[in-house]
Amino acid sequence: MTLSKMDDYPLHQVAEVIRHVETSDRNFYDRYYFNCHNATADAPFVVIGLGVYPNLGVVDCFAAVRYRDDQVVFRGSRALGADRSDTSVGPFKIEVIEGLEKLRVTLEPSDDYDVSFDITWDADIPAVLEPRHFYRQIERVTFDTQRFAQTGWWSGEITVDGDRFEVDPKSWRGSRDRSWGVRPIGEPEPAGRRATISGTFYWNYVVMQFEDSSIVMIIQEDQQGRRVMDDVTRVWKDDRDNEWLGHVTHDVSFISGTRDVSAAKLTFTRPTGEQVVADVEIIQPHFFGFGSGYGLEQDWRHGMWQGDLVTGGLRYKVDELDKMLKLFCPTEYLAKFTLHENGETKIGYGLFEFGAIGPHDQYGFKEFIDVAP
Q: What is the mean pLDDT of the chain?
């Protein structure tokens, strides 16, 4: 039985029931991502995700919280039923109250993990559709995805390690995205000829939230700096049209002995030659790849079959995380942004997601395990 309630709505895109996507590629996914913070290192920095993997028959989720010197993780996985609109995994649930405007995310408390929350997201800008992400490695399409991004405010409550935080929309904010398409997921596949290729994945995804607007930037480069993705868009909170801020250059500073970011400068150059500069001050790193399914642990990857329903918790000491594994996954940095434009300065906060995985000429990384001097 593959029919679901959604099949009674005129939403079909292909000659299949809603449960089935157009491609049979095992790597098709459909995912929510959220972050939640109050722009300080004193309160929890929460990163949340839920993914549906129709061709693997799996739904999974995570909530990874950086709180003081700990990273506290909840994660869950279950079998995908006929109804893809069921966005729950055991005690975890996402509810779309009003599409592109308001969503509620909940995690019920349990003795099996040390975090719970009931928080509601209200958008403060229209969702912005990002450029299509397409990448082919030899003949195999490894990325073919679409995504939109959005900033907003949170309300509700979060409890971590028994400490309860009232989430006031006057101070708690964040960004979210929705993405879907094809990207590597699940159990590792035989690489075949692709095993002979050591590709660089330089990634910088930035969402800045200001009083009057938000800026969404996405960069992916190869070793030489050639761009696979290159876009920066400002979305105004009033009726002004979205604004392309031009070509992006980056100057990233690293903590010695690592590839962890200590500061950065982003320069956006419009076709007129006018420049907008964003200075990036790191407030707190969140190594969200640990425990959440992004491939660092081989026994728990996004889309991997875990059983009909499996949930549980993990805990890490941030200063004890495996330094080698950190080199192979982007990091979510809570950041302060100082924007310089036309002689004026604006202060904003948000996400600086960064990963320099593999060799990269600009920063002198010749091998995968090279670190900053």
A: 96
